[in-house]
């Protein structure tokens, strides 16, 4: 995780936020004391894909017109 001083973070905020969006994590400090951790947003699409893949593993496909 990258550590960045609050003054540097504030002066280049957009760059750090775009970097976080790309997957990087940052710890923002003031005089060496951690203030916040900036993390990428959760990827809900990936979580949904994992759930669908697990569901697909247990799916049973049958003929609905002639079920015998």
Automatic annotation (TrEMBL):
It comes from Candidatus Kentrum sp. FW. It comes from the Bacteria. This is Antitoxin.
